[in-house]
Design goal:
The structure holds two protein chains of two kinds. Chain A contains nine helices and twelve strands. By secondary structure, chain A is an alpha/beta fold. Chain A has a four-stranded mixed β-sheet, with helices on one face. The radius of gyration of chain A is 20 Å and the shape is globular. Chain A starts with a strand and ends in a 13-residue tail after the last helix. The relative contact order of chain A is 0.12. Helices cover 40% and strands 16% of the residues of chain B. Chain B has a five-stranded mixed β-sheet with strand order 1-2-3-4-5. At the A-B interface, helix 2 and helix 9 of A face helix 6 of B.
C-alpha cells in the first residue's frame, strides 16, 4: 500500500544508497521508504538532485511542487512504463470525433452535478430553491450541442452551488463568489488548495494507467496542464474536496487562525495546510463497498476505476458511464 | 503447410494467458497491463528472486523473446508460486521447449512449485508440438482483433490483476 508524503519544512531531499532521506534545515534526518511512496508533495524550499529524480523515476514516483502560498506549481512526471499506443490512438479518436467527445464531456459534467446535488441535499435547509434551480439547469446537459454550451451550464450550476456554501457552512465562513486568481477569502483559498490536491491525485492515478493525460474532452487538450486530470477532477471535486471543506469548517477543526492574508491573497498557512491535508488523506483512504466489484474500494481507487472505465470505452469494450456515488 | 515459428513468436507469458483467459491475453497484447498494480504479481516476483539463489543461469533471455527462469544442463525450469494454473504453466514451459527445439536445443522441462516444495517434469511430444502451433496461430488471431474478447466470468477472476478493470461498472 503506497501513500503520499508531504514535506512542509525547508531542506534537502536526497538518495543515499537505496533510501530516500529528507534532511531539514536543522539537520534532522527522516527516511522515506521507497516502496511505500506514491507521490511526494513539496511545500517547503527543497534542494534535490538528478540522482534522486532518477531513482524516483525507476519507481514511477511523482514529485509535486507548490509555491509559497501553497498553490500548485507543477509536477515531475516520470517516464511512463505502462504504455499502450493502441489505447492512446483510440483515446485521440474519441477527441477528434466531436459527437464522441461531447458524449464524454457530458458524462463528466453530469457526474459532477450529481455529486454537487448530493452535497446540497445533505444540507438542504434554506437552499431548496438553489437545488431546484440546479435540477432544472441539469436537464440542459443532455441537449447541449457544443462543449462551450456545456461549460456555460456547468458555470451556472457552480454559481448556484457556491451560493449555497453560505448556508452549508455553519460558522462565520462565507463566500461571495468563486475567485481563483488569487483567492481573497478563506473559503476560496480552501477550494483552490483542495482542487490542486485533487488534480495531483487524479494525475497520479492516470499515471498508473495507459491513458494519455494530455488528451481531454471537457477541457481543451494541452493548454498549460495535463487536461485529462482537470476533466476527471470535475467528478471528484464535489465528492472529495468540498466534503473535506464542509467537515473542517462545520466541525470547527479549521478556524480563521489557519489562514494568512498577504497583499490581498488569502492562503492556508502551514498549520492550516496540515489540517486540510490530513482530512483530505483520511477521505481518500475511506472505503466504500463497491456494489459491482463486491469489495471495499477507497475513494482514491474510485479515481483509478474511472480511468479503467474510460480505457474500456476507448477500446470499444464497454460504453463509459461516469461514477454517480450511490451511498 | 509447414509451420513457420518466425511468424508466430510471442513472449511466453502470452501462451500462459491464452490458457487462462483470452481477454487478458488481448489486453496484455495491446499494452494494457495491470501487473504493476498487483500485490500477487509482486509476491511472484519476490518468490522468483529468492528461489534457487545458488544457480547461476537465472533469467536467461533468448532471442529477445523468451525469458527463461532457469536453464541448467538438461532442463528448462520455471518457478511458480502455486499449482492452481497447471495447464497454463505447463503450456508456457512447453512453448519454451518447443522454441528451443526449433533452435536445435533439446531440453526437458521442470516446473518448480516452490511453496508446495514440489516439481513436475514435462517432455515435448509431437502431440504437444501440434498443440503449441495451434495455440500460437490462435494467439496471433486474438491479438489482431480490434476489440477485446467479451468478459467471461471464470472462477479465478477475483484473483486476477485485471479484476477491477474487467468488472467495474455503473448501475443503470
Amino acid at each position: 500500500m503506497s501513500r503520499d508524503f508531504y514535506i512542509f519544512s525547508n531542506g534537502r531531499l536526497k538518495r543515499k544508497d537505496n533510501t530516500i532521506y529528507f534532511i531539514d534545515c536543522l539537520e534532522n534526518k527522516r527516511t522515506l521508504p521507497i516502496e511505500q511512496i506514491n507521490c511526494i508533495h513539496l511545500f517547503g524550499e527543497i534542494d534535490l538532485n538528478s540522482k534522486l529524480i532518477n531513482y524516483l523515476s525507476q519507481y514511477g514516483i511523482m514529485l509535486s511542487f507548490y509555491n509559497y502560498y501553497g498553490y500548485y506549481s507543477g509536477t515531475y512526471y516520470p517516464r511512463k512504463k505502462n504504455v499502450s499506443g493502441f489505447t492512446v490512438v483510440n483515446q485521440a479518436n474519441h477527441y477528434n470525433d466531436y459527437e464522441k467527445r461531447l458524449y464524454i464531456a457530458k458524462a463528466f459534467v453530469d457526474s459532477a452535478v450529481h455529486h454537487i446535488l448530493k452535497n446540497m441535499r445533505r444540507h438542504k435547509e434554506g437552499i431548496e430553491d438553489l437545488i431546484e434551480r440546479i435540477q432544472n439547469e441539469r436537464k440542459n446537459i443532455e441537449e447541449a450541442q457544443r462543449i462551450d454550451e456545456l461549460m456555460g451550464i456547468e458555470g451556472r450550476i457552480r454559481k448556484s452551488y457556491y451560493k449555497s456554501f453560505n448556508k452549508i457552512l455553519k460558522s462565520d465562513f462565507g463566500i461571495q463568489k468563486r475567485e481563483k486568481r488569487p483567492p481573497t477569502d478563506p473559503v476560496n483559498a480552501m477550494i483552490s488548495f483542495g482542487n490542486s490536491l485533487m488534480y495531483t491525485t487524479v494525475l497520479s492515478e492516470i499515471y498508473k494507467t495507459q491513458l494519455d493525460p494530455t488528451i481531454s474532452f471537457l477541457h481543451e487538450p494541452s493548454v498549460k496542464r495535463f487536461s485529462l486530470g482537470l476533466d476527471i477532477s470535475e467528478i471528484f471535486k464535489p465528492l472529495i474536496v468540498d466534503t473535506v471543506i464542509f467537515s473542517l469548517v462545520n466541525n470547527r477543526v479549521i478556524t480563521f487562525d489557519e489562514f494568512d492574508i498577504e497583499e490581498g491573497i488569502c492562503y492556508l498557512n502551514e498549520k492550516g495546510r496540515k489540517k486540510f491535508i490530513s482530512e483530505y488523506e483520511r477521505k481518500l483512504g475511506t472505503t466504500i463497498k463497491h456494489r459491482k466489484l463486491k469489495r471495499k474500494v477507497s475513494y482514491r481507487m474510485f479515481i483509478r476505476l474511472e480511468c479503467y472505465k474510460l480505457i474500456k470505452h476507448f477500446i470499444g469494450d464497454e460504453e463509459y458511464k461516469p461514477l454517480k456515488a450511490w451511498w | 503447410m509447414e509451420f513457420n515459428l518466425d511468424n508466430f513468436k510471442v513472449q511466453g507469458v502470452k501462451v500462459n494467458y491464452y490458457y487462462i483467459c483470452k481477454r487478458k491475453l488481448w489486453l496484455y497484447s495491446k499494452g494494457i497491463t495491470m501487473e504493476q498494480n498487483s500485490d500477487r504479481v509482486m509476491i511472484g516476483k519476490l518468490v522468483h528472486e529468492n528461489s534457487y539463489k545458488r544457480l547461476k543461469k537465472k533469467e536467461v533471455l533468448i532471442d529477445d523473446m523468451l525469458k527463461i527462469d532457469i536453464l541448467d544442463n538438461d532442463y528448462v525450469r520455471e518457478v511458480k508460486i502455486s499449482s492452481k494454473m497447471t495447464k497454463a504453466d505447463k503450456m508456457q514451459l512447453m512453448y519454451y521447449l518447443y522454441y528451443l527445439d526449433s533452435l536445435g536445443i533439446k531440453k526437458k522441462g521442470l516446473i518448480n512449485y516452490v511453496k508446495e516444495k514440489r516439481q513436475e517434469e514435462i517432455e515435448l511430444t509431437d502431440e504437444y508440438k501440434r498443440e503449441i502451433e495451434k495455440t500460437l496461430i490462435d494467439i496471433k488471431e486474438i491479438s489482431q482483433k480490434r476489440k477485446p474478447p467479451e468478459l467471461v466470468k471464470l472462477p479465478y477472476c477475483t484473483k486476477c490483476a485485471y479484476y477491477e478493470f474487467c468488472f467495474v461498472k455503473e448501475e443503470v
